[in-house]
Amino acid sequence: MPPQLYEFHLPLSPEDLLKSGGVNQYVVQEVVSIRHLPTQLKAFQAAFRAQGPLAILEHFDTVYSILHHFRSIDPGLKEDALEFLTKVVSHHSQELPAILDDAALSASDRSAHLNALKMNCYALIRLLESFETVASQKSLMDLDVGGKNKKSRSKAAHGFDWEEERQPILQLLTQLLQLDIRHLWNHSVIEEEFVSLVTGCCYRLLENPTITHQRNRPTREAVTHLLGVALTRYNHMLSATVKIIQMLQHFEHLAPVLVAAVSLWVTDYGMKSIVGEIVREIGQKCPQELSRDALGAKGFASFLTELAERVPATLLSSMCMLLDHLDGENYMMRNAVLAAMTEMVLQVLHGDHLEEAARETRDQFLDTLQAHGHDVSSFVRSRVLQLFTRIVQQKALPLTRFQAVVALAVGRLADKSVLVCKNAIQLLASFLANNPFSCKLSDTDLAGPLQKETQKLQEMRAQRQSAAAALVEPEEEWEAMLPELKSTLQQLLEHPQEEEEIPEESAVAETAEEVKGHIRQLLAKARYKQAVILARAATGHFPESDPFRQTEPEGSEETRFLNLLGIIFKGPAASTQGCNGSKVPGQTVATDTPSVSEPEGCGGSDELVKQEMLVQYLQDAYSFSRKISEAIGIISKMMYENTTTVVQEVIEFFVMVFQFGVPQALFGVRRMLPLVWSKEPGVREAVLNAYRQLYLSPKGDSARARAQALIQNLSLLLVDASVGTIQCLEEILCEFVQKDELKPAVTQLLWERATEKVPCSALERCSSVMLLGMLARGKPEIVGSNLDTLVSIGLDRKSPPDYRLAQQVCQAIANISDRRKPSLGRRHPPFRLPQEHGLFERLRDMVTAGFAHPDPLWIPFKEAAVSLTYQLAEGPEVICAQMLQGCARQALEKLEDKSFSQEDSRQTVPMLPTFLLMHLLSLAGDIALQQLVHLEQAVSGELCRRRVLQEEQAHKTKEPKEKNSGSETTMEEELGLTGATADDTEAELIRGICELELLEGKQVLAAFVPLLLKVCNNPGLYSNADLCAAASLALGKFCMISTTFCDSQLRLLFTMLEKSSLPTVRSNLMVATGDLAIRFPNLVDPWTPHLYARLRDPAKQVRKTAGLVMTHLILKDMVKVKGQVSEMAVLLVDPEPQIAALARNFFNELAHKGNAIYNLLPDIISRLSDPEGGVEEEPFRTIMKQLLAYITKDKQNESLVEKLCQRFRTARTDRQHRDLAYCVSQLPLTERGLHKMLDNFNCFGDKLSDESIFSAFLAAVGKLRRGAKPEGRATIDEFEQKLRACHTRGLDATEAPEHRSQRAAPVEKPHTGSGWQPVASVGSDSDFLTPELRRTTRRLPRTQQRTKKKPKIVFSSDDESSGEELSAEMTEDETPRKTTPIRRASARRPRS
Question: What one GO molecular function would you report for this record (predicted)?
Fold first, then answer.
């Protein structure tokens, strides 16, 4: 068929071109074989050179054959075909403008060019798509191969880079579409298939995931421009909208690409309407469907979010169509809509010059944002806080909403989601950084100005109100009185006889002005009748005077009188507003008054407005400061969260708050100090950076000024600081010193303050010495090189002595020594000073001199002095013995003086001052403990060091033959064995000294033992609180020395621990017994129940100390974790927050020790629900809710469910039944756990009549139902039906079991009435009695070891507790003598 007679139809699929579909429709005649394709392509090229672009009409079959065999033909042929077709289309696009402008173009020529255009475009686009398909498949395969030179290898192999070839083709198609080619079609309407052909290739290119890569940016831009031309010239909007929606649903990578395309169409092509079309399609999507289509929802959300960032003004008009998604289930869509609203607030709806409609829209958007701050999804709540952070940072939040959003952020700090809390902290930090109030936000500093200015405003308002009352507009007053005045005037005119007589002489005697004033007063007092009568009389007396002159004779008499009275009343009233109250005629005043009074009124009004604005500003600033202070209290509790990022945010927040001068910020800055010991490097570094930022970069004009500011800030941290705080700060400063981050000017200024070269107070001097000691830990030479100076500073002989400064000097000097135990490989002897050094002489003199003076600061000083002596002195025991002997000598002298002075009196027993005895015992205790530490660390370490040196020396002197005589392995083993034996020998030597020498014979310490025991054994005689505390602490230190002495005094120690009326004594002894439990575990083990008993001490100080001690002992495995650990659980609900936090920390750490909490839970539940020694129901639930949260393994949950269900049989009371049911409801039930409950249903089925028990089981089933699989729902339904059936039957179903229990009840009575009764703190774990189980329990091997009087079901951890052990009134035969070595393998022992 000749080319002019057929018509080329664009096929839906390539196969359609092989079929004849209609009259004159072009059909491919022959698919050329691969072998003949090169020849046919050359023929096509030759025809093109002769005929131009129309050559395609005769050679289309060749191109079609290339497409048909594309995967099989040679790559070079493909590339040649692509290059040639590109050339053909380019040539055709250059010819088309002239052809389209030719008015004489025949129909046949137009048809030929149309067919050639469609054929050329079809061939080029299909070839482009084929190359793209192969390239995308190859890119997926290359993902497995990897390698940086992947692209270069591809180019080297083929000499062709497809990624660089796409852009020119797309640009060529864009140029073609920009021509007015519609004239080639009939009626100038381009067929839809042609537009779809061109745009379809664009969408296929976009579907390739690699299109987002940076190297493909030219291709993306070319595709965008090509589609932009199709949109503007070829009515492609509807198709583009549908295609964009489809691609967003199925291709995750396309959202940013399509956003860039749409924004380009809006800005460069003016196609703003496409935004509305796309948003309408998204808005019409069903929210329920999107909740199931996560990929589509994510695509739409990303698209809307980024589109709002690019073209917010265009999207604004379409926002109403997206509001339905705010109520949808998919949180990503809610986030996207909220983010779009935020972008519009930031970019469009901001500023002070918004129109009313725009302001309302902005307020609606902000209202929506605030409302979703309480969204059910934590992701939405978190996103809202992030969006508000952006708004605040860009200062786009109206001041009227400041307080509301701050309150929202503070409220979200208590959110259960860590992510929400983190973003709430960030929002508050942004509020601080961008607050419009002040750079210093101290509510105490703001309260004073606010009160002052508020009072001033109230005074101004009162003045204004009084002035307004005095200057009421006369017109208003006249209008108010006019009706009544008219009525009075009419009556007088109608009945003139009612007029009262006015004395004529009074009217004559007055002037016209005086009469006017009189009339005005009568009108003001509402005496209208007298005013009218007087006015009528005045018109007769003053006919020529204003205003009594009759100017309107033609009016009625009533009107004339009303006008007269109006002029009199209104005129003079207006004149009072004139300057200086000058009396001017009424008419003149009325006209001149506005020009005089108006500026004054406006000035007063302006002042009032300014004052109101000032008060409002101060009120907002004060409220903001109060909210920040409230937030500080909440955020400070989050400083020890498990999430590192949250902790870092908290630290950064406190840094910012501190910089804004909020007083409470210092609390948070101190609270973050212990985090310097964190195992998380990020947290530790955050703390160090915070202190660098706060303290190492102070403001100042000079280095000295900056050093002074740094020292002043650090000194504030030391005010009322605890020992722990000081240690943490010391660690931080040590880090700074070691990294040379502290300038020399700081050290120089500290020395100047310490030596009083710079005027400073005593406390500042003391803090300077303390800081020098901290720096010495990092660089000992800071103090070591100036040791004599430091000694002269704090230990000089002055009166009165400064013991606080002396104590800090001792601690600073102590930092130059190495307090760690010397390692075996150390060659050099430890740093020590000779006994004759002036330091020790000063220390000895100062201790002995202060002994006889009742200064409370002497005790901590002498403790530091003794510690320093043992750390630095050679032979410290000699120096300390001299101290102790000197003090004892003074005491004896004082006693002799008392005895001599009392010879003549009736008193026969001399009395020693209490403080002297306290000082003596305290000093003896300190020396005893330090002597023990010195022996076990310094002496033992020195013996090891010398032994190692001797062994090395001996090893060097051996002959070479001897060295090689034995094998190397054997020699190392012998050396190791020898070293171990030597270690044991040295340890035995030290132990022998402690056991046999320190407290025996004529040793100095032994002389104080009788005195110490006498004071401790006679609390009635020695009742002074300080003396008792010192004696008890000294006894604990003496007990640390010797096993024999400790064993003999344990009964006294625990009696004092139990019976002392002084909380300080009990607290001290708790620490002492804890130390003894570590040093002599076998001795203290029988007394462990008494340690647990202190956890219920009535004094909070003792409970806190007991909690700390037991935490260390249990976590270090120094005491057995018995059922009495329930006492630690009780601390979880302690009214003191610090004690409750301590208990939470204990269980957090215990949870990391394997299955410890799981193993203890049955005992804890039994003890806490025990009616005779447990806790109330509400505290029980609070405790168990926290403890059961640690059970995370499914097997443990299932086992606990089974145990708890079986526990219903042994429970005696309804309260225990409810407690067990509550515990079951708190466990995360699994399907296997449900089967366990079904298997044990008979254990608790008869208890379901109780509403709370029934509700607890229903709650457990409800949790399981929410996440259950469809196949498991049948079992859940079956179990729930059984629950409801038992609950409905109530007591009828349990009548028989109840009768049995009633018959069994008398059997329990003899047992519960026996001599043994469980006590709260050390009682048995479980008192659940089951008569039917008594025979069974007797057959068990473990219960055979127990007495027959206690047929109870108990747990192994309770085998060692007994009621008698709690009594502190112990006789000799009651003292536990059976010592059991600590072994974790078994928790039971035979009772003695």
Answer: histone binding
DSSP string, 354-417: --HHHHHHHHHHHHHHHHGGG-SSHHHHHHHHHHHHHHHHTT-S-GGGHHHHHHHHHHHTT-S-
Cβ contacts of 609 within 8 Å, gap of 6 or more: none
β-partners of residue 7 are 25
Give the total residue count for the chain.
1392
DSSP 557-604: HHHHHHHHHHHHHHHHHHHTTSGGG----HHHHHHHHHHHHHHHHHHH
Burial class (CB in 10 A: 0-12, 13-18, 19+), 30: exposed
User: Is the Cα dihedral 139, 141, 143, 148 positive or negative?
Assistant: negative
d(CA 1241, CA 1235): 10
Residue 1053's pLDDT is 92
Q: Measured between alpha carbons, how far is 662 from 656 in angstroms, rounded to an integer?
A: 9
What is the spatial distance between Cα 1263 and Cα 359, in angstroms, rounded to a whole number?
Answer: 46
Neighbour-count burial of 926, counting CB atoms closer than 10 A to its CB (0-12 exposed, 13-18 middle, 19+ buried): buried
Q: CA 577 to CA 589: how far, in whole Å?
A: 9
Contacts of 222 (CB under 8 A, 6+ apart): 166, 167, 170, 171, 174
Q: How far is CA 342 from CA 48, 267, 886, in A?
A: 59, 21, 79
The pLDDT of residue 32 is 83
Residue 535 to residue 488: CA distance in whole angstroms:
13
> Burial code of 416-445, b = ≥16 C-beta within 10 A, e = fewer?
eebbbbbbbbbbbbbbbeebebbeebbbeb
Six-digit token string for 1277: 């339904």
Q: Which residues are within 8 A (CB) of 914 and not within 5 positions of it... i.e. 6 or more apart?
A: 1024, 1026, 1027
Total-model pTM: 0.69
Please tell me the distance from the alpha carbon of residue 638 to that of residue 565, in angstroms, as a whole number: 78
Specify the pLDDT at position 1388: 36
Helix (H, G, I), strand (E, B) or coil at 833: strand
* pLDDT single digits (tens) 1110-1152: 999 998 888 877 678 888 899 999 999 889 989 998 998 888 8
* Structure-block tokens of residue 728: 């943490």
Q: Enter the tokens of residue 514.
A: 């005086």
Q: What does the pLDDT read at residue 472?
A: 60
Q: Which of 276, 96, 267 is nearest to 178 (CA)?
A: 96
Residue linked to tokens 């530091």: 864
Q: Angle at the Cα of 772 (from 770 to 776), degrees rounded to 5?
A: 115
| 1190/294 Cα distance (integer angstroms) | 33
Sign of the dihedral defined by the CA atoms of residues 642, 644, 645, 648, in that order: positive
Q: How far is CA 269 from CA 256, 265, 308, 727, in A?
A: 19, 5, 18, 68
| pLDDT (0 to 100) of residue 953 | 78
**pLDDT < 70: residue spans in the chain:** 1-5, 21-22, 140-160, 187, 438-445, 466-473, 496-510, 550-555, 571-604, 799, 818-828, 898-910, 958-983, 1001, 1122, 1267-1268, 1271, 1290-1392
- Nearest CA to 1160 among 1180, 1140, 1188? 1188
Yes or no: say if 1040 and 1079 are a contact pair by the CB < 8 Å rule.
Answer: yes
Please tell me the predicted confidence (pLDDT) of residue 1359.
39
Between the CA of residue 1303 and those of 330, 532, 1211, 1349, what are the distances in Å? 61, 109, 16, 20
pLDDT score at 387:
94
Residue 515, sorted as left (phi over 0), alpha (psi -120 to 50) or beta, turns out to be: alpha
- Helices 237-250 & 294-310, crossing angle to 10 degrees? 120
Residue recorded with tokens 């009322």: 720
Rg of the chain (C-alpha set)? 49
Amino acid identity at 168: P
Q: How far apart are CA 1191 and CA 1194, in angstroms?
A: 8
